[in-house]
Amino acid sequence: MTPDVRDRADRPARVESHNGVGGGAIPESDWNRALHLIKQADEVALVCHVTPDGDALGSMLAVAFVLRSMGKRVVASFGDQPFAVPRLLRFLPGQEMLVPPAEFPVAPELVISFDSSTFERLGMLGDNTARAREVIVVDHHPSNAGFGTLGIIDAKAAATAMLAEQLIYRLGGRLDRDIATCLYAGLVTDTGSFRHSSTTPAVHQMAARLVATGLRTDEIARELWDRSPFSYLKVLAAALDRVKLEGGLVWTYVTRVDRAAYGLPYAELEGIIDIVRRTDEAEVAVVLKEDDQGAWQVSTRSKGTVDVAAACAALGGGGHHNAAGYTSHATVEETMAAFKRELGMA
Length: 346
Ligand code: 5GP
Ligand code: MN
Known about the structure:
CATH architecture of the largest domain: Alpha-Beta Complex
Shape: globular
Number of helices: 12
Radius of gyration: 20 Å
Oligomer: single chain
Number of strands: 11
Bound molecules: guanosine-5'-monophosphate, manganese (II) ion
Number of domains: 2
Distance between the termini: 61 Å
Strand content: 15-25%
Largest sheet: 6 strands, mixed
Strand order of the largest sheet: 6-7-8-9-11-10
Structural class: alpha/beta
């Protein structure tokens, strides 16, 4: 028998929805089916989207801890080649549970996917996941059209970590400091340190449960937001030097050559959009980041009136109303022209 989640001291009096008033968006029958699938499986393969952020990797590792403590064989990975945890996330506990994609089962019994809205976002593990007997998709992207065999999807949840926390309780797991650190990384990442409009009472209530385990909010904040190699400042300077303000759009780009000059890895570019988007005169911000393969990873942000997810979805990507992205194989000029067309600016 599963212990009744309501009896647990470390969880709220009831499983609360994103808005804190109860009655979450996910039907009980779907949660029950997820629990059933997990309990039946000997091995559970966990996956999250490529170049994982704090929400993707944090949610996955938190659930991995709990599955492992239930005695499951756990495999956790993401489809990046070369396989490396982004430096920003190296402080996360549980990384010894990660395996490179080559060691991921070719046709798994059960996969749980975290924070990914499509098979494609799973990169080279998309095919393995598609071959799995069952795929539970834990996600909060509005663009998630429901891939896999069971969706634990709530587009109103501020982070996938909120769904991961519920899953943990429902599995009979408890929060310890390591699990809470992983979930907290997801919650702070996706709410922009509790600044975005998605920051509901339920978000702060979850944060309170996590912080109560004794995790170090100061150290996590420093790891995630407040450190970088010196070379980042040089590359940032190059990006800001060529920034353009066109109507309500502010944008810039960073090339492989910029990074190579200072030996800066691609993953270090994540924070540039947060500097560019502060521009008062712009409603929309874009940063084009050239990855190691020469493709442009397009980061877009809106202050609220423009739906950048719609524009990015039309260009083959996706995301949230105010934060979305896609991959472009065109030139900088062509990429920006296409994006402006989608915004109705051209
Ligand atoms: P970022 O600019 O931080 O890389 O991405 C912002 C958001 O856009 C992410 O949380 C993710 O939801 C979405 N996103 C970024 N790139 C892609 C992409 O290539 N495909 C899809 N479907 N979503 C993306
Ligand atoms: Mn997320």
